[in-house]
Amino acid sequence: MDVAPLHPVASLAQRAPGRGAMLLLALFALAWAVVEGVFGARLQLHYSLMQVVWCRYAVHLACLGLLVGWRAPSRLWRTRRLGFQLSRSLLMLVMPASFALSLAAGDRPGTVWALFWVAPLMILGFARLALGERVPRWVWAVAAIGSGVAAVMAEPALPRSLAGAVLPIVMALSFSIYVVMTRALRDEPVQANLFFTALGVFALLTPLMPFVWVMPNLHDAALLAGIGIVGLLALWALDRACERAPVAQVAPTLHVHLLCMALVEWGAAGEAFTHRDLLGAAWIGLALLALWLWQSALERTPAT
Question: Which residue from 20, 120, 197, 271 could staple onto 143, CB 3.0 to 4.6 Å apart?
Answer without folding.
Answer: 120
